[in-house]
Each structure stands twice: as C-alpha cells, then as structure tokens.
Write a structure and sequence with these properties.
- It is built from 19 helices and 19 strands.
- It starts with 11 loop residues before the first helix and ends in a 14-residue tail after the last strand.
Length: 664
C-alpha cells in the first residue's frame, strides 16, 4: 500500500496556501453524486460532516451516542489555541508552529504542524460566528490565558467548558445540514468493520446498538473522527465508552498505526481513590496559570499528611517545595504536560506524596486568591481592606475564572479547594499516536481518511495543552474539506457503491462471525474484568516510565491475557438486542491487540521523548534523552497476528533546529 507523506513542495510558510490554490477540485454538480461516510461526531467528525454537507456532498454520519452532543469533545475544559496575538505579547503563526514542534519533542511532521498554526486563526472567527461564548475582557475583546509549554497567552476559553461550547457550535451547524437533508445521522450505531473493495475503502459495517442488527453502508470515501485510544489503560480521563475500535478495525484491514506508544499523561487529575474506580477526572491545565504545585520538603510532614495528622495548611511556606518553579524557573508551573507529570511522579517516588496512597501533590491557589483580592480591592478603592476582605474578593475572581472546575473537584473529593489546596496526580489523557495519514489526512488505504485525535499527525510525542480542540476543528472545518478533493476528484466517474456487492456481504459475514464467536465462549469472566487487568499491565509496564525488561514482560502478559479472554470471557444476553456487554467485549478484544502493539512500539524506540520515557535513556538530572540520529522517524506499524511490521517515515526538519528541549 502507498506510504508517502505527500508533502507539497515550496517554502513552509507558503506551502499550504499554494497547495490549496492548485489542488484538484470537485465541481458542485459532481459533489451531489459523491457519498462520504463520517464516523464520529466530536469536534473533528461533527465539523467535517457539517462542512461536507454545506459543500454539497451526500453525507452519512455515525455516532454510538444517542446524540452528537454526547461526544467526548464535550469534556475538554481549558481552552483552544490560536495565533491571534490579541495580547500583543509576541505571538505569531511561526511561534505557535515552533512551540508545537518543540512541545512534541521534535517527533511531528513540520508541514502538518505549520498548517495547523496557520488555520488556527480562522477557527476562532468560525466559533465566534457560531455564537460560542468565549470569555471576554472588560472592553469586549476576547480574553486569552496561558497553557503549558509556552510563554505567551494564546488560549481562548469559555470558563472550564470550552469543549462543550465548541461542540455545541459544531452541533448546530451539523443539525442545520441534517434538517436540510444534506446529512443523514445514524445515532446509536457503532462501526464494527471497514469494507474494502479493489484496494479502496468503500464503506463500513455498522451495528445498530438498540436492535443488534448489522447494517451495510457504502460510500466513495470513509472518514474516521473517532478520537483516541487512552482507555486501553482502563483508568483514564476519557469517558467510559471512548474506545479505539474503529481505528483498529481499519488497522486490521491494512491501515498503519503510527507512534502508538506516544501517550499523554496529564499532570492535573484527581488522584485514584479506590481499587474499583472506573475512570479519572481531569482538572484543567488552565488551573496551572494560577495554581502553584508543591509538596512538603520534609518526609515527616508528608507522612503526617498521608496519615491525617496534618493538612497542607499546616505546612509553613519555608517547608514547601515548589518543585516546578525550582527546577524550571523560565516556565515554572507552566512546563509541558510530560515534564510536569514526570516531576510529580519523582516527588511521590521520593516519599513526598500527600494522599493516603502517596500518589498526589498539591495544586495551591492561596497566592492567586490573595493577589487577585488585592488587585480587586485596589480597583474598588478599598485601600485598607482586611485580609478577610481581600480573600473574599480574591475568591470571587477565581470563581469567575474556574468556578465550575472547583465545584466539580469539591463534589468528587469532598474538600473545598478555595480553602484546602487541591490534590492532583498524573493520569492517562490523550493519545498522540493514531492512524498514519499523509498531508491530505489520507491513510495508506486509498479513500480512508482520519482526522482529529484519531490520526497521529500534529502533536509528536507530547501534545501541548489546548491544542486538541484546535486540531479537531482545523481538520474538520479547514483542512479535510480541501484535501479530500484530491481523492474524490478521481472518483466522479465511479458509480454509487453497491452495499449489496460481494465485498460488503463478505465483510458483514466476517463481522458477524466475530460476534458469534464471542457469544459462544460462555466463560466465567466479564469483559470489564479483562479490561481492568489489561489496564493494570499497561500502566505498570507502558505508563509514565518504561524499560526494555518491563515492556517485554508486559507484551507476554498481554498475549496470555488475550488467550484467556478468547477462552473464558462471558457475554450475557443475545446478539439481536440492546447489549452493552457485547459492545464492551468487542472493544476489549481490540484493546488487547492494540496494547500489545503499544508495548512493541515503546520497546522499539530506544530513546526518551515527550510522553515516551524510557528509564534507560535519561540525562543526569532525569530529563528525557532523545536520539535523533536513530529515531527521528514516525513508527508506522502494519498489523500482523504473528509479528507486526514496522515502516518508517523519516522526519525532515528544514525550518527548526533539532535540539534538546529546555524549560529551565
């Protein structure tokens, strides 16, 4: 299958503009004859479906939710990046490009990242036109705040609900196209296989989750906007239903999975509280704008806090270690996520953790409350305000900026974060790996495209905060609607694809046989049991720190677990009915293969970069040690049940200098 990045020639700053102006187009009268299937209705899928409908294509869009509004994009909290330079603080398209390349530890494709930075400025205008209620300054201008890994303020936000508001904007655009008949929505449908015909993606097999019926859906092109696979770790910040099965079904048909071991560990999550917890809750990275991260300097103080004899309020300022500010003075609490996460792990490994499990650090807002309170009092001419009044005013400012996040924290933990410092610990969040795509966002399978978190293209080994929403909307609104034309312009003479053809019949037969096999096992363990066990293996051997011995052991354990799964899983109920346990079993079966590939990818990459930290490859002070001479490539894996095959896309850096990241 073809494996070329297909980056157009020309200077980096002009590449996208020139390519967009010269690429093949599909005339409006021909668009009406072309069918496109889009799987997923999050920011990437929803934006693409709405835009394709607006352009005139015949669109079918699929979601396993009851409504597109339920897509996991709704959970994004802190903001969306764009190089608008509203703060006049030195931001630019190039700086956003450079920050993203550097933040990803130089493991992403230059051309794709620069294009992302270019179109970022259009996304904000699009969202504002849709009525997204971004935060504004007193004079009415859109407000910005900072996120990790940058020294400018370029993040637009709607309190802690940015993903929800952006998704509603995309959803209303999608709803308009549905009402006009340009887009057909299939809710409560899950893709269970990709249909190939003559070497091209020609449709999907979907399962109606309410009736259990399998359905055939044909199209000239298939687009996957199905998010990431972080739930392979079981405990993550993703919704419980988030999964990697649509992408993995494509991999089983020959699509390459790129950089699967590049997993983002988010540093500000509510710590694990019990063995039977099913998911973790994210506290937005935006909180690090005002919160200071610390642990006690003394082991005895940390032990007293863990045992309940002291609280964070009992530790005097002189006995607190603000370790991010100490280790990384240039960026302080706003270092990138991978750096902040490893630093938290190091502090807890040294015995300085502050939760009963020992796996938590503090995120403290006391200094910010006092700072904001004094400023507010001054602006109100309260020049002799008491400490209590200053605190009252400061709490009001923090509440206005982060109120819903603080409410969520208090409901989950039972502690008031306005009084007690938050307890946080790193957790699995986002996956930078995904389906390999070229510059056109097309996989190595002709006619199959992947957008948003489902592809690997923009974030390298570590995603900067507030860039996920940017990529999803960029791909859906401003990139794929252009680049898909390079493929569809060659398909205008192709007749409507027949879902009754032999390729579809064979694909449906195989998908049904897989379901029948699962239902026939009648073992003794639930799919959830296997998923939980897989998650423990993944976190232990392929989590925040990895080493060769552990990765080899983890792969063996996953293989054994997969054999046990196909021997002893129990799926209750029937096939032709609403059966969420069957849905779960199908997803866990895919995770058991994907988890093994992640172990192999991490073992192959003998370096540390971004979220991939191999213990054998670190500097004297514990930072990631890249090996650009051997590993400046994209790992694109072709699945094989016996031994997956590695393909390499060499990364060429013509516009940035490869150098060791430093945030000190």
């Amino acid at each position: 299958m073809p494996f070329q990045p297909n980056v157009p020639p020309g200077e980096l700053s002009q590449k996208w503009k020139q390519y967009r102006s010269s690429m093949p187009l599909v005339a409006p009268n021909n668009k009406r004859r072309l069918e496109v299937i889009i799987v997923g209705t999050g920011l990437a899928g929803g934006a693409a479906a709405a835009t394709f409908g607006e352009l005139g294509y015949k669109v079918k869009v699929f979601t396993f939710h009851d409504s597109p509004r339920r897509a996991h994009s709704i959970a994004a909290q802190g903001g969306i990046n764009a190089a608008k330079n509203y703060q006049n603080d030195g931001d630019s398209v190039y700086r956003l490009f450079y920050d993203t390349i550097k933040g990803g530890d130089y493991r992403s494709r230059e051309a794709n990242v620069h294009r992302l930075a270019e179109v970022s400025v259009n996304i904000i205008d699009q969202a504002v036109a849709q009525g997204v209620p971004f935060a504004r300054e007193y004079g009415g201008l859109l407000s910005n705040r900072s996120f990790g890994g940058v020294q400018v303020s370029r993040t637009f936000y709607a309190r802690g609900q940015t993903g929800q508001q952006l998704l509603l904007g995309a959803y209303q655009s999608l709803s308009r196209q549905i009402s006009l008949g340009n887009v057909e929505l299939f809710n409560r449908h899950e893709m269970i296989d990709l249909v190939m015909e003559n070497g091209k993606a020609r449709g999907i097999i979907a399962r109606n989750l309410l009736t259990g019926e399998t359905e055939r859906h044909a199209a000239h092109a298939v687009v996957l906007g199905t998010g990431g696979y972080g739930n392979v770790f079981y405990l993550s910040t993703n919704a419980m239903n988030s999964n990697g099965s649509a992408a993995w079904r494509a991999v089983k048909q020959g699509a390459y999975m790129a950089n699967p071991c590049f997993t983002q560990i988010h540093p500000t999550c509510i710590p694990v509280s019990g063995e039977y917890q099913s998911k973790l809750t994210l506290m937005s990275e935006s909180l690090r704008n005002d919160g200071r991260v610390w642990v006690p300097k003394k082991l005895e103080d940390a032990a007293a806090i863990r045992e309940g004899r002291k609280t964070g309020l009992d530790i005097p300022e002189a006995d607190r270690d603000y370790y991010l500010e100490r280790r990384y003075p240039a960026f302080g609490n706003l270092v990138p996520r991978d750096v902040a996460s490893r630093a938290a792990k190091t502090a807890c490994d040294e015995g300085l953790g502050v939760s009963p499990t020992g796996l938590a650090v503090y995120l403290d807002f006391d200094a910010a409350i006092n700072r904001y309170g004094k400023s507010k009092a001054h602006s109100q001419n309260e020049h002799n305000a008491s400490p209590a009044r200053i605190r009252e005013l400061g709490v009001g400012v923090i509440e206005e900026k982060y109120g819903n996040l603080f409410e969520m924290y208090e409901k989950i933990t039972g502690e008031d974060p306005y009084v007690m410092p938050m307890k946080i610990y790193p957790a699995v969040h986002y996956t930078m790996g995904g389906l390999w795509v070229d510059y056109n966002l097309q996989t190595n399978i002709p006619g199959l495209f992947a957008i948003g978190e489902a592809n690997f293209s923009d974030h390298g080994a570590n995603r900067l905060g507030a860039s996920a929403l940017m990529q999803g909307l960029a791909d859906g609104y401003f990139v794929l609607p252009y680049t898909i034309g390079t493929y569809l312009s060659e398909e205008i003479r192709s007749p409507m694809v027949d879902p009754e053809g032999p390729a579809f019949q064979e694909a449906e037969k195989k998908a049904q046989a897989r379901i029948d096999r699962l239902m026939a096992i009648k073992g003794s363990k639930s799919p959830e049991t296997f998923h939980r066990e897989l998650g423990k293996i993944m976190w232990e051997y392929c989590g925040m720190a990895r080493n060769a011995e552990g990765l080899k052991k983890g792969r063996r354990m996953i293989r054994e677990l997969r054999e046990e799964f196909w021997r002893d899983v129990y799926v209750p109920g029937r096939i032709k009915e609403y059966n969420p346990e069957l849905e779960k079993a199908l997803r866990v079966a895919d995770f058991l293969e994907l988890g093994e590939l992640m172990m192999m990818d991490a073992l192959d990459r003998n370096e540390s970069c971004g979220g991939h930290f191999r213990e054998e490859y670190q500097t004297e002070d514990g930072e990631a040690l890249r090996r650009d001479d051997e590993y400046a490539y994209v790992s694109a894996w072709e699945w094989d049940d016996v031994e997956p095959i590695l393909h390499k896309e060499e990364l060429i850096f013509e516009n940035v200098e490869l150098k060791t990241r430093s945030y000190k």
